[in-house]
Every structure is written in C-alpha cells, then in structure tokens.
Amino acid sequence: MGLIIDNSRLGAPEQKLYRLVVESEMARTARPGQFLHIRVADTPAPLLRRPLSIAGIDAAAGRLTLYYRLKGQGTELLARKRPGEKLDALGPLGRGFTVPAAGELLLIAGGVGVFPLLSLGEAAGRRGIPCALLWGGENSAFFAAAAGIAGHIPTRRYATMDGSFGVRGLVTELLTSRLAQPSTGGGLTAAACGPYPMLKAVAATARAHPLPLEVSLETTMACGIGACLGCALPGRDAAGGRVTRRVCLDGPVFPAEEVEWL
Amino acid sequence: MAVTDMRVALGPLTLRNPVLAASGAYNFGEEYAPYCPASLLGGIMVKGLTPQPRLGNPPPRLAETPAGLLNAVGLENPGLEEFIRSYPPRLRALDTAVIVNIAGFTVEDYALMARALSGVEGIAALEVNISCPNVKHGGLAFGADPAAAEEVLGAVRAATPLPVIAKLSPNVADIQAIARAAERGGADIISLINTLLGMAIDIGSRRPLLGNITGGLSGPAVKPVALRMVYQVYEAARLPIIGMGGVSKWEDAVEFLLAGAGAVAVGTANFTNPRAPADILRGLDAYCRENGFAKVEELVGLAHK
Ligand SMILES: Cc1cc2nc3c(=O)[nH]c(=O)nc-3n(C[C@H](O)[C@H](O)[C@H](O)COP(=O)(O)OP(=O)(O)OC[C@H]3O[C@@H](n4cnc5c(N)ncnc54)[C@H](O)[C@@H]3O)c2cc1C
Ligand SMILES: Cc1cc2nc3c(=O)[nH]c(=O)nc-3n(C[C@H](O)[C@H](O)[C@H](O)COP(=O)(O)O)c2cc1C
Ligand code: FES
C-alpha cells in the first residue's frame, strides 16, 4: 500500500512517459531492481496487477519513485490516479541488482529499460562507486522527455538509431567502445535492462570480454510472488543444469550466464 | 450473534472451513503466507504433480483477457520423488489440509503416484487431475471420455486409502456423464472446473500469444460456466463437490454453495487480491449470520429446493 504523492507526465504527450511517487513503508526495505505489483482498478478488468520497477528509493523520506510508459488499459488507468489517492501495490518484490562494493559500474539501458537501473545508480553513488550509463533510445524526442531522470548518474553516453541524440547506432556499440578502454582499478561490473534482443547482444559481448553482468528481465506476470509459475523462463543453474526460473521471485534480475538466451 | 460454524464434511474429508486454494494458483502454499496464512484456509490444493519432474511450457505462459486469464504453464513441477523427499515437512508446517493434485500420462502413472503418496504423512486427500488442457498427452484425454475417467479413478481408488477427489474438465459435451463415471470409478468427491480451453493472438506479430498456442481460461470470465456445471453435477451424482472457477469474492462463494458445492477453491482471484480467501471467509460468515444460518453447510444446494 502507498499514498500517491505525484503522478505526472514527463515531457511531450507523444512520449507517454509518467513519473509516479508514492509514500510507503515499502521504501524502508526496497532494493534497486525490485518491483511493485500494482492494482490499477478495483474492477474485474483489467484483472491482473501491473509490475513496475522501483526507479528511486528515498528510505529516509519513505518515498519510492517509479516511471512508466503508457502501453494499454492498465497503464492508462494508472495515469488517471491523482496525488492523495491510495495505491494498492504489493512489494517490494523480487530479487534486485547486486550493488557492487568496489570497482566501477556500467549501467546499460535500452529505452525505458533505464528505469530499474536508476535506483542502482543511486545506490552505487551512495557507496562512492564510479558509475556510467550507456543508454540507447529511439531518437532525440525520447531523450528530450527522458534524459533528465538520469541526471544523478555522473557519466552518461547516449545512442540513437538516427543519430539525433548521442552517437548513431546501438547501445551495444557504446558498450564495445567502452570495453576497449582500460578500466580503473577494482574491476568493472555491469547491469542491463531493455528489450530482449538488446539484452541478448549485451550478454554475448559481456561473455566474450568477460564482464560480470546482471540483467533485469520482463515477462507477463500474474501473482508476482512466485506462486503461479506463469512468469517462468528457461534458465541455467550455477552448475549449468536446465531449470525454470520465476522472473518475479528468482528475478527479475539474473546473472546473465544463468539465462537461457532464446 | 454467535459465529457461524464453518466446518464442512465432504464425505471422508472434513475441513475447518469451505474455502480452499486451487491447484496451480498457490504452488506449495508458502508464497502467500505473508498475505493470507494457509492456516486460515480450509485447505490448499498444491501444484499438479507428475511422476517425473517437468520444466513446463515455453514462454509466454500467460495472457490476460477481459476479466480472465489464459495460462499454459504445462504442469511445471518437481516430480513425485523430489516432492516426497523435500515437501512433506514444509506442507505440514502450513497447518492446513493439504490436498495433493496428481496428473499422469497413463493410468499406471496415476496409480503409481497414488500408491507412493499414500504412505506420506500429512496428506489429507488426493485430487486426480484428469483435466489439464496444457499438456499434450493424458490429462484432458482422461477427463473427456467417461470410460477413461472411470478407469483412472478406479485405478487410483484401488491404490490408496486416502480420500480421492476427481477434478473434472469443463471441456466436455456432457459434464454429468463424466461426473457419474468418476462416481462409479470410486471417487469420494468431485472438484470442478479446471480451465476452459482458449487462445489469444498477437495482432502485431500475427502469431498465437502463448508459447503453447492454446491455454486454459480462468477467472471471473468463467464463473457462470463453472456455476452451471456445479449445479448440473449436484443433480447427476451423489458425491460432495468442491466448486471453483472465478470465485473472487464472498458473493461468488455463496452462489457456488447454493448451486451445490460443499466447498469452494480460489485460484486466479489470489493474483488480483492475495487476501481473497480470507476476505471470502469473512463475507461468508457475515452472510450466514445475517441470514440466520448457524452452519455454513446449511447453504449447500439450496438453489435446487
Ligand atoms: C519486472 C517488471 C518491471 C517492469 N517495470 C516497468 C517500469 O518500470 N516501467 C514501465 O513502463 N513498464 C515496466 N514493465 C512493463 C509493464 O509492466 C507493462 O508495460 C504493463 O504491464 C503494460 O500494461 P498495460 O495494461 O498498460 O498494457 P497491456 O494492454 O496490458 O499490454 C500492452 C503490452 O504490454 C505487455 N504486458 C502486459 N502485461 C504485462 C506484464 N504484466 N508484464 C510485462 N508485459 C506486460 C503485453 O504483452 C502487451 O504487449 C515492467 C515489467 C516487468 C515484468
Ligand atoms: C496459473 C494456473 C495454473 C494452474 N495449474 C493447475 C494444476 O497444476 N492442476 C490443476 O488441476 N489445475 C490447475 N489450474 C486450474 C485451477 O486449479 C482452477 O481449476 C481454475 O483456474 C479455475 O479456478 P479460478 O478461476 O479460480 O482460477 C491452474 C490455474 C491457473 C490459473
Ligand atoms: S508471476 Fe506468478 S510465479 Fe511469477
């Protein structure tokens, strides 16, 4: 449960991006990469809750920040909620990112996949871990609305397919050129979230380097707490055996080598 | 006013109250503990068990539909051996009636599982799933043919002293014929409905949305079908009934009891409201008190009078 403090659009309407700030005791235990499972209406349709990543954690103020893009009925109903209304949310759910204790952290984002990485960047910053964001997006219109939400991450590199913002190309190219440079002492680790093909490509690059990588995955969820097995994906256990993993409970963040890339 | 007597007797199976968790929605009962302790429930029906472990179907396994949910999990489960090795102490700790749901691919599979589970301490009953729409062989094949249903139930009956629940599929032409066959085979209780076979297509990719192509529909959308089938089975067979299919709020539970169910199971509603079973129990108790029923069992079948 939470109380809505802010639920407002970011940037131009066509970008359909929203920020949701909730006051909740969940902020005290939330970890970067975990998610909330939100009931957007009291009616039988839409039936299921909607999972949204925790993008900002202010434990002292008891506030969580989430960002979402309008997709269908669920997110549209969510966008109608006003400050002062209650938010029926389960959470914080799932296993989040590892916040490194030393070294340097790369955040690799595709489009709105940046959201869960924002709270990881926040936590790494508090530990004094140098942190860089490599962020691929559609075009400059997307970044005009979204770029501001990553302002707390000290180093930022952007890529767009049309070259209208940052370099022309894919985020994987940003990663390849970053990996060509020497890293500072203590070693480099990475975390990624974005469309599946992007994550698959990032995982292949990380394996080849090698670069320790965690990825945050998405599947359709029902229960959100591990009880229905509806969100499960094929994976590998640490010994390489075939398993199925519940994205909601065993994830959404997984070591890249434990994902069976399809 | 005194609280309602919520105990129900379903043939050989006595439950502390008539609200259970449906198989497949509750895994092995532990995940919902922070929201709705299993000890509040009449019982839990655990995830369908098969003789061998199964990894289940490829993703996506879920698709939301208007007031409904399609699933094609494909009986992902740890398998009989691992279940018997690791799960009984955890299940006993839940402090509720544990009903083990079994699914096989041959009659021998069912008999073998029933025999193996009979020696396990803390199992209140077996629910024989002859209705899973999400695996290729077996499952639904047994539930769609009266002779096959009778044979499977007969084999399970011969293999175990535990109460035997026959879980029926709605994907049949004549539910009453299947219910009578289950009764002849020796089932003690009938549970219904499993999910209704359905599908959804992604108009973007122009391909079926589920990895398994078809899936089983559950949730509020199926409730009228489930209620009708409970009503019909009550008239066709003498066995007690566990009704399920879209039970989401206490009013639904009252309807199922009036239609003839001695208890209800809650599946999909947990996903929306993880406290749904507790909320339903409270509402059921209040309904009984307000309407002068000292025992919840007095409601069973009243719609037939
Ligand atoms: C762990 C996790 C974290 C997420 N974090 C964010 C976030 O921070 N911000 C954000 O904007 N989005 C996030 N998503 C995606 C978000 O949940 C979906 O965009 C949302 O559920 C769509 O709902 P809708 O009713 O608006 O759209 P629908 O009309 O229901 O669907 C539109 C599309 O979204 C897909 N979808 C529907 N339900 C889900 C679901 N439960 N999970 C994944 N995809 C779904 C459908 O397949 C469809 O293609 C996250 C998803 C997961 C699994
Ligand atoms: C995700 C999911 C998994 C299920 N798995 C099983 C199962 O393993 N065995 C079984 O007999 N029924 C299974 N069912 C069917 C339910 O037990 C129940 O019969 C059906 O969903 C109707 O009830 P509901 O509308 O309350 O969900 C499953 C249902 C869902 C939604
Ligand atoms: S959504 Fe139910 S197990 Fe993950």
What does this structure look like?
The complex is a heterodimer of chains A (262) and B (305). With 262 residues, chain A is α/β, with parallel strands linked by helices. Chain A is built from five helices and 16 strands. Chain A has a seven-stranded antiparallel beta sheet. In chain A, strands 11-10-9-8-12-13-16 form a seven-stranded mixed beta sheet, with helices on both faces. In chain A, α2 (114-126) links the parallel β8 and β9 (131-137). Chain A is globular. In chain B, the strands form four sheets. Chain B has an eight-stranded parallel beta barrel, surrounded by six helices. A four-stranded antiparallel beta sheet of chain B has the order 5-6-14-11, with no helix packed on it. Chain B has a two-stranded antiparallel ribbon with strand order 1-2. The mean pLDDT of chain B is 95. The interface between A and B is medium-sized, with 29 and 33 residues. The complex binds flavin-adenine dinucleotide, flavin mononucleotide and FE2/S2 (inorganic) cluster.
Secondary structure elements and pairings:
The complex is a heterodimer of chains A (262) and B (305).
Chain A lengths: L1 E9 L6 E7 L11 E5 L10 E4 L2 E3 L4 E7 L3 H7 L6 E8 L10 E7 L3 H13 L4 E7 L2 H7 L8 E6 L6 E2 L2 H10 L7 E6 L2 H13 L4 E4 L16 E4 L5 E4 L7 E3 L7
Parallel strand pairs in A: 8-9, 8-12, 9-10, 10-11, 12-13
Antiparallel strand pairs in A: 1-2, 1-7, 2-6, 3-4, 3-7, 5-6, 13-16, 14-15
Helix pairs in contact in A: 4-5
Chain B lengths: L7 E3 L2 E3 L3 E3 L21 E3 L16 E4 L2 E4 L8 H7 L1 H5 L4 E6 L4 H12 L6 E5 L10 H4 L2 H14 L4 E4 L7 H11 L3 E4 L3 E3 L2 E2 L4 E2 L6 E4 L4 H14 L4 E4 L5 H10 L3 E4 L2 H4 L3 H15 L15
Parallel strand pairs in B: 3-4, 3-16, 4-7, 7-8, 8-9, 9-10, 10-15, 15-16
Antiparallel strand pairs in B: 1-2, 5-6, 6-14, 11-14, 12-13
Bound molecules: flavin-adenine dinucleotide, flavin mononucleotide and FE2/S2 (inorganic) cluster.
